[in-house]
From TrEMBL, chains A, B, C:
This is Glycine transporter domain-containing protein. Keywords: Cell membrane, Membrane, Transmembrane, Transmembrane helix. Residues 7-80, 93-163 form the Glycine transporter domain. PANTHER family: INNER MEMBRANE PROTEIN, UPF0126 INNER MEMBRANE PROTEIN YADS-RELATED. It holds the Pfam family Gly_transporter. It comes from Sphingopyxis bauzanensis. It is a multi-pass membrane protein.
Length: 211, 211, 211
């Protein structure tokens, strides 16, 4: 069981690292920049969660396997980026799997550290989407997760299922499975059907002064 | 008294969340992105302060009311953004109020956690401006607070008054009031008179290599 | 000895603060923005390391000298930016010195806090490059360290020497000197010879969907 979770977790790390590395390849970063983006995309969500719940040093800095898997994904993209681009569909499925695993694991860890149910669900979502946000901030772009798409909502639903199951004292394995499945299926369906969240109506007034 | 502080604090949170949400509406984010920006703009300053002083998990993740107020502000902007744009002046006043409250509260919390007076004043300022910085970084823009305007200085003055009063052992309520008023009045006057900080003189040399 | 380390550390802080302030001057920030960039560029690497290893509040917030040196560098750039641009070579040397010192000190602090050797070397590198990353993120640019150049690798080598020496139980002063020298010489040689890391080959396929 524990080995299975670890393998799934490393698969998710690998998928997220691929997304970071490919973004770096497209922006013509050098090999170092690509490896940094791999590691940042794979681990920032978990690192942010661990800092916020007070679990320093973060898990991603305590287990060398996350680093190793991230670097392997980065090197793969550096040398065979056109191959990875052709494997778009399996990579996307791996990415959805990673999202589901990270959301579930993030929510569970937040509960263990005593956060309230609502915040645990949010931290689960943050664990899932944080890597992509860090990747995009490092590339000086508006995070795609804020822009479009059903990505974060799927993570939030998965995390909420875990939190709900915990409140109802359901067995942890069952709720983790249910949450992960909910997130994964929602995300895959959203990709297949092109689901989008609504945008705000265009405003025609002159811009409101920021600050 | 405690209730009054809470109400003021939630007013500030609301104002900051509005600024985040309006920025998201203008960039055509989806509803999820707008809610994330609301929450980030309202709470990042306090979260950064809490992480820096070692108070994890941050207060914003322990009290659901900050989340609820942020989401309410985000939904308001999503559905009635043109209304909010028309209410520019009251929103600005609310924002200045939020700045004053956050700067004062941030400085006091840093003092309680044993930081030195200078650093407590800086952390008070950070509490006030951090939300706007996070909002702008997420939108891939140079933070407006770095660019122009008397915003951060007002927060710093308010925080410094609190710290000074603490060093002179003045009663805490009096110094908090004085600090908050100083920040609020300075900010409102700066808006009304168009005060700006000086810019560096344009350099005509070729750019200095960064790194 | 301890005084020497402090002086070198403050020299590094000064050099990093100069790089932040000059970047701010070039983007026409106001005086406040320039001072923020000075402090951020000088201390973000160390602050990130301290948060990650659980050493809050970070050292940069506990010793007023880092703040004072950063502000002095910022004011210098604000008033005499053309002078600093003309002193490009000494400033670069100072910057390489700062990189070496920060990488060595960062790796040693991470070891003291019980991180594994690989992670300690990474955190040493992060201490060296974090300031530049924060400066560029605040300016909404892709961090130059991800883009080109032998900067991060020099920091990593210096940190790795420290960690290796620690594992072999060599005296700490000797390994610190060796690590710092390795980093400094590598960086200066890379500048003089124009060493670059390899870029990924341009891909001609249509872009891989991110997320």
């Amino acid at each position: 069981m524990r080995t299975l979770v670890l393998i799934l977790d490393l698969c998710g790390t690998f998928a997220f690292a691929l997304s970071g590395a490919m973004a770096g390849v497209r922006r013509r970063l050098d090999i170092f920049g690509i490896l940094v983006l791999s590691f940042a995309a794979a681990t920032s969500g978990g690192i942010a969660r661990d800092l916020l719940i007070g679990a320093a040093p973060p898990a991603a800095l305590q287990d060398w396997r996350y680093l190793a898997v991230s670097l392997a994904a980065g090197l793969l993209c550096f040398f065979w980026s056109s191959l990875i681009e052709r494997l778009r569909n399996p990579v996307r499925m791996l990415d959805s799997l990673g999202l589901a695993l990270f959301a579930v694991a993030g929510a569970e860890k937040a509960l263990v550290f005593g956060l309230s149910p609502v915040m645990a669900a949010l931290l689960g979502m943050l664990t899932g989407i944080g890597g992509g946000v860090a990747r995009d901030v490092l590339l000086a772009e508006i995070p795609t997760v804020l822009r479009s798409d059903f990505y974060a909502v799927a993570a939030l639903v998965g995390a909420a299922v875990v939190v709900g199951g915990n409140m109802l004292h359901f067995p942890i394995v069952a709720t983790a499975l249910a949450g992960g499945l909910a997130c994964f299926c929602l995300r895959m369906t959203a990709i297949r059907r092109g689901w989008q969240l609504p945008l705000a109506r265009e405003s025609r007034e002159h811009p409101f002064s920021e600050k």
